[in-house]
Design brief:
Layout lengths: L25 H32 L5 H28 L9 H39 L7 H5 L2 H7 L2 H36 L16 H4 L3 H37 L7 H38 L18 H15 L1 H12 L1 H10 L3 E4 L5 E4 L3 H9 L1
Antiparallel strand pairs: 1-2
Helix pairs in contact: 1-2, 1-10, 1-11, 1-12, 2-3, 2-6, 2-11, 3-6, 3-8, 3-9, 6-8, 8-9, 9-10, 9-11, 11-12
């Protein structure tokens, strides 16, 4: 089947705004479908494997395992939505607003995508803070960290319990679902659908309106206003992880100058590496989207009146067609965590890493020269390792 050629919709199609229609380029109808298809192929088996390892191969679940298992569930739900997103962008010039797949995307897929982003944000922040709290409680520097004196001792003890991590994850799901679903439902029902139906041709034109339209991709003023608290929430959690990164770095420097109290340098290096990994994931995957989103909202709604010029709006492209494509590409970058998070589990947790080696029949044995060897074969390789 040939890929659709990007073109303007017919002149008899109505537009939800008087500024024209969205004109997709190759970035929309070619790059995004291929990227989401690749994301589905990699994210689905990786998260199924990770969740299987957490639930079946790790007998004693630590708080980190609880956090990462809930993150795997969220990413698994995300991976199930990627085929619909690939079809949506590939058929952006074909689907109409009243099509069943378009209705599913607007009413069902959109809430799942936003829920995944903010569940991942909150869980990764809790992982970073729990590792940070463990560090400052069990290591010492030239002087105690202020967090040890400000936070109650019961807080540090609870961070070590898997039951406390389970309650945190349940609270994260409740907050994310309860805060995002009403906003996305309002957007999909009152702005995307009614906005398109209220075009200049009236409700009869709704069946001819394209699914890839300004009403669906840009939204209305109220949904944009509801997005502001989510953007603020992201930067609050992002700064918390950044603060823990800076505090751990200062803690390491003070511990190097300490000559009276012995400090586990390996623990310091491990916690610092874990926080760096989480900070890297948040900075690369989520930060660009949340930096561009307020700019996009501001431009889309403050310049609407300036771009509202008379004429045949059906024969020209919407002035924010390029901005919409940039937004969708950055959203793809945020969704790529579905494939990269299992790699992050491998780097963060040693138990998970060992279980992955065992699942694939890979053993790590210490030989006399203190090096690590990996035996992938069967009994013959095991006998050879015993002889060595």
């Amino acid at each position: 089947m040939e890929l659709p050629v990007p073109s303007r919709p017919p002149a008899n199609a109505s537009s939800p705004s008087s500024n024209g229609v969205l004109c997709p380029s190759a970035a929309t109808f070619l790059f995004l479908p291929c990227a989401y298809t690749l994301l589905f192929v990699t994210a689905l088996p990786a998260n199924v494997l990770a969740l299987w390892v957490f639930l079946r191969h790790i007998s004693t679940m630590s708080p980190t395992h609880v956090y990462l298992s809930h993150l795997s569930i969220s990413n698994l739900l995300l991976s199930l939505t990627t085929p619909f997103l690939a079809a949506y962008y590939a058929q952006s010039s074909v689907w109409t607003l009243d099509a069943g797949l378009c209705q599913l995307l607007v009413h069902g897929i959109t809430p799942v995508l936003h829920i995944n982003i903010y569940i991942s944000l909150m869980i990764l922040t809790w992982v970073a803070l729990s590792r940070f709290a463990t560090l400052i409680q069990h290591t010492h520097a030239s002087r105690p960290s202020a967090c040890v004196t400000l936070l109650p001792p019961a807080f540090f003890s609870r961070l070590k319990k898997a039951s406390f991590a389970s309650r945190v994850c349940v609270s994260v799901w409740v907050v994310a679902v309860g805060g995002i679903v009403p906003v996305t439902v309002y957007y999909s029902v009152n702005e995307a659908m009614k906005g398109a139906a209220g075009s200049e041709d009236g409700g009869a034109a709704r069946g001819k309106e394209l699914c890839y339209s300004p009403a669906v991709e840009i939204g209305g003023i109220l949904s944009a206003a509801f997005s502001v608290p989510l953007i603020i929430l992201f930067f609050v959690f992002y700064l918390l992880v950044l603060l823990s990164y800076v505090t751990v770095l200062r803690h390491i420097r003070r511990s190097h100058r300490n000559t009276t109290i012995g400090t586990s340098q390996s623990l310091l290096a491990k916690v610092f590496r874990n926080i760096v990994i989480i900070q890297f994931v948040l900075s690369v995957c989520l930060l660009p989207y949340h930096v561009f989103k307020p700019i996009f909202i501001s431009f889309a709604h403050s310049r609407f009146e300036l771009t509202n010029t008379p004429g045949d709006v059906h024969d020209r492209c919407h002035p924010f067609s390029t901005y919409v494509e940039v937004k969708n590409c950055l959203y793809l970058l945020a969704a790529l965590r579905g494939s990269t998070d299992p790699v992050m589990y491998f780097l963060l947790d040693r138990t998970f890493r060992q279980q992955i080696f065992m699942v694939f029949g890979c053993k790590r044995d210490k030989v006399q020269d203190k090096t690590m060897s990996c035996s992938v074969a069967g009994r013959a390789s095991q006998r050879l390792a015993q002889q060595q």
